[in-house]
């Protein structure tokens, strides 16, 4: 059975989560770890330890607002990939969410990125047709062209404008006019 345990209740697993975070995401697609953990203090953000009988097997970072839930980072330890755990986590999140779920994934330019997009599509996520960039997390990082995906329905053009504005303002602390 999979458990999503907030970091505040799983402090003993923090080093494992930090290592998984750094191993799973390229530098331009991640924050400084201390900045990431600092977000949990006074925001709708939380870091979750994905735990089962084998211990800590993954990481899920979420922003929960009234309008939608945003998956900022999701990673399963390589040892446990391909065993249905990722699907179980996403299905659990879909079951618990009372709002639309939004996530970013890489553009389909590599086999891994295509497999990732197909994974989310099999779970009922829809690819947004609007051009989207993940703003840089800091001055030393680059913006990354990404694909937004949503569940349960497709993001409309007007929803895209509102979602992008909220992500840029709340998650990335950027002004919408700074990026395409």
The radius of gyration is 16 Å
Residue stretches low in confidence (pLDDT < 50, at least 5 long) are none
Average pLDDT over all residues: 94
Structural class: alpha+beta
Instruction: Summarize the biggest pleated sheet.
Output: 8 strands, mixed
Element order, helices and strands?
A: EHHEEEHEHEEEH
State the distance separating the first and last CA atoms. 42 Å
Helix content: 25-40%
The count of DSSP E runs of length 2 or more, i.e. the number of strands, is 8
Number of alpha- plus pi-helical segments: 5
Q: Which strand-content bin applies to the residues?
A: 25-35%
The general outline is globular
Could you walk me through the main structural features you see in this protein, from its secondary elements to its overall organization?
- Strands 1, 2, 3, 4, 5, 6, 7 and 8 form an eight-stranded mixed β-sheet that branches.
- The mean pLDDT is 94.
- Helix content is 31%, strand content 28%.
- The protein has helices spanning 14-24, 33-38, 85-96, 111-122, 157-171; strands spanning 3-6, 45-52, 55-64, 68-76, 100-106, 126-127, 132-134, 144-151.
- The chain has five helices and eight strands.
- The chain is an alpha+beta fold and 180 residues long.
Give a quick precis of the structure.
By secondary structure, the chain is of the alpha+beta class. 31% of the residues lie in helices and 28% in strands. The protein contains 5 helices and 8 strands.
């Amino acid at each position: 059975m999979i458990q999503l345990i907030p970091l505040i209740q799983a402090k003993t697993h923090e080093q494992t989560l930090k290592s998984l975070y750094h191993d799973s995401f390229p530098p331009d697609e991640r924050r400084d770890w201390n900045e990431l953990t600092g977000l949990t203090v006074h925001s709708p953000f939380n870091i979750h330890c994905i735990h089962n009988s084998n211990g800590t097997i993954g990481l899920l970072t979420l922003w929960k607002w009234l309008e939608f839930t945003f998956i900022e980072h999701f990673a399963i330890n390589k040892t446990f990939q391909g065993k249905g755990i990722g699907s179980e986590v996403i299905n659990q999140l879909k079951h618990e969410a009372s709002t639309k779920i939004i996530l970013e994934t890489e553009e389909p330019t590599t086999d891994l990125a295509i497999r990732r997009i197909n994974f989310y599509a099999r779970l009922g996520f829809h690819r947004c047709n609007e051009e989207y960039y993940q703003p840089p997390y800091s001055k030393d990082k680059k913006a990354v062209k990404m694909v937004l995906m949503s569940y349960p329905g497709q993001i409309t053009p007007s929803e895209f404008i509102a979602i992008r504005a909220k992500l840029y303002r709340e998650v990335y602390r950027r002004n919408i006019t700074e990026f395409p």
